[in-house]
Amino acid sequence: MIRGGIGLFYENSIWNNNLFDRPGRLPKGLFLGLQPVCTNGTPSTTTLPFPSSVDPASVCGHPIGSVASQIAQLEKDFQAFTIAQGPATNGVFVGNLLTAAIDVTGTELFNPKYVTPRSVQMNIGVQQEIRPGLVFTADYLRNVATHTMLSVDTNHIGDARFFNLANAQAAIATTLANCGVGTIGQSIIGCPLDPANGTNDGGTWVPRAALISDYAGNGLDSGYSVCGGLPCALAGTPPAAFPGINQNVGANQMLFPVGRSVYNGLQLSLKQNMHDPLPGIRYLNLQISYAFSRYVATARDSDFINFAQDNATPTRFIGPDGLDRTHQLSFGGYMELPAGFQLGLTSHFYSPLPSNTDLPVSGAAGGIFQSDVTGDGTGDGSFGSNGGLGDLLPGTSLGGFGRDFGVNGLNQRITQFNSTLAGTPTPAGQVLVSNGLFTLAQLQALGGVIQPLQLAPPHAVGQAWLKTFDLTLSWAYRFRERFEIRPGVSFFNLFNFANFDGPAIPFSSVLDGTPGSPNGTTNPQPNSLRLGLGSGVNALGAPRAIEFSLKFKF
C-alpha cells in the first residue's frame, strides 16, 4: 500500500508569551514584573524606584552568602512599595520605563505584525504485510514551520553601528580623571586611584593597571551593561557609548514572527503479532522502529521566548535544534504467559543531541569588546541582552557541535580562531580604533580584544547517546467476568545505563573549558551532569527505578 498526505496546521502562542506582553501595555494594574538591581556585578541603577535602606552598590559584585540579608531586605522593600502603590501605577508600563525586555523588566511585547505560527506537514510512505502478522512500514516526513517567535531589540542597544562619540569621550575622560592620570598609556602603566570613583577606597586601594572594564564601567560600553537595558538617564548612570538607535529610551525586545524550522525524517518500523509462537507463550507482539532525521531551526526551542542569535540579521543562523537526534532506534514487545502473567519490555537507543559553541564571557563590563564578534549588541555577557551568552564561535552555526564537527573538529576551529581572531578587535572595538580613541595596542593591553580559547583536553568527549531498557512483569486475576486485579512490578532503565545531556539538562554550549562544556568534558562525565529523576511523571534515561503497581479493572 502506498500512502501520502499533506496538512496545514496552526499553533497557539503558549501562555507565557501572552503573560509577558500584557503587563507592559497597561498603565495601571499589578502585574508580574522585574526590578533590575545589578548588571555584570555593578548596580543597574544608582537610584531605585522605591525607598530602601540598602544601597545597591553594597550588594552588587559580592558573594550572595555575604549579602543575603541585604537582598532579603531589598525584596521586602520592593514588595511593600508595590502593595502601597496598589494598581494605580504599573511599575513595568512601557510608557513609564521606556523599556520592555524579558530579563530587564520581565515584559516582552508582541510585534504589531504578529502572525500565528503555522506548519505544513507532508508525508509519503509504503506499508506491506510480508506474511500474516508481520507488517513493514516506511515513511518519509517533512515538516516546515514558519512564523515562530524570535526576540529582537528594535532599539539595537550595543550595536556597533550606533555609536555616540561624545559619550565615549566622556567615559574615557572620567576614567582617566578617576584613575589620577592624564593619558590612556599612563592608565595602562598603573592607576594610583580607583578608576570607578577617583579615591583610594579608604586606604584599601592597591594601584594597578587599568582594564577595559574600568573604562566600560564609566560608560564606554553597551547600554545593556552600563544602564541595565534601561534609558541611562532613568537608571542614573553615565550615558553609554553604544546606546542603540535612540539613547533616550531603553531596550525594546519584541517577539517577531520570523522564526523557521524544518524537519526531514525517514521512519521505518517492523511489527509482528503471533499467537502461540512458542510453548508457554500464548500471545506475542514485537515491534522495532528506526528514525533517521534532521531537525533544524532558528532557535533551540521554537515555542518559548528565544533571543535572535544576531539582532542585526535575526534569521542569519539556522541549525540542528535542541531536540534533533540523527538516529533513534526503539524496540519492544509484549507477551502473555501461562497462569495470567504478562511480560513487557521497551528499549530506546538515541544518538546524541547537538550543541552550540558559544564564546565564554568575562562576567565583567566591557564584554562588547571581547565576545560580541558579530557587533549586533548581543554576546557581550550582559544578562539583559540575551541571557548572558557570548556569540557563536565564528565559523559555526546553531547546533554545530555534534553535527558539523566533533571534538577533533572543535579543536581545529579553536586553533584557527586563536591564530586569526584572538587579539583582534570586535566590531565595537574597531569603532574605537577608527575614531582615534584607542590604538589596537592599547586595546590589547587593556584586555579589550577577542580572547583566546582553551583547547579541548585529550580524551574529551561530546554529548552522549541515550540508552534505556525497561521491563514490566504483571499478573492478572479475573473474577465475576467483569473484574480484574493486576499487581505488577516495573524496572525502568533496568541495566542502569548512565545517561547524560538530555533535552532538559543539555550539554553546556559555553567554551569555558569546564566539565560539561564542549572543550572541557572527559569520560566519564561527573555524576552532577547525569540525567535526574525529572518531574516524577516522566524521566526517560533516569537512573534505575523500580515501580510497584496494583490495578483494578472493571
Q: How would you describe this structure to a colleague?
A:
A hairpin with a 2-residue loop joins strand 5 (118-131) and strand 6 (134-153). The chain is an alpha+beta fold and 554 residues long. The protein is elongated and about 95 Å long. The longest helix is centred in the first third of the chain and has 18 residues, at 68-85. 18% of the residues lie in helices and 26% in strands. The strands form 2 sheets. Strands 1, 4, 5, 6, 7, 8, 9, 10, 11, 12, 13, 14 and 15 form a 13-stranded mixed β-sheet that branches. The chain has a domain at 13-110. The chain has helices at 15-21, 68-85, 94-97, 165-179, 184-189, 212-217, 223-227, 232-235, 383-386, 407-420, 427-434, 440-446, and strands at residues 2-10, 38-39, 42-43, 109-110, 118-131, 134-153, 253-278, 281-297, 319-320, 327-336, 341-350, 466-475, 477-479, 483-492, 545-553. It contains 12 helices and 15 strands.
